[in-house]
Design the sequence.
């Protein structure tokens, strides 16, 4: 009877020790994965709002000409942007600021 109890305790302690090893390996893998997902998340495209500017600022930007650039500047816009590995900003799409 004592032998059965002792053998049972030995097996349960081995299983407990193995679970600690597995748990530690899982933590290590999880911490490694967190760094990767942060990098991927940071590189995801997102919408940035460029607010409307004053008439004087927009005329200066468009070199005194009333053109499409002037209108975009006056109305403001949203740009769907993504940053590449060199931290350069790339505009993927552009839309007017939604009016709700």
Sequence:
């Amino acid at each position: 009877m004592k032998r059965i109890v002792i053998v049972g305790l030995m097996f349960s302690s081995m299983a407990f020790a193995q679970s600690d090893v597995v748990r530690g390996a899982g933590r290590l893998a999880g911490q490694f994965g967190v760094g990767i997902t942060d990098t991927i998340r940071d590189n995801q495209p997102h919408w940035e709002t460029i607010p409307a500017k004053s008439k004087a600022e927009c005329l200066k930007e468009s070199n005194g000409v009333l053109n499409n650039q002037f209108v975009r500047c006056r109305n403001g816009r949203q740009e769907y942007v993504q940053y590449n590995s060199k931290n350069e900003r790339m505009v993927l799409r552009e839309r007017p600021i939604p009016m709700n």
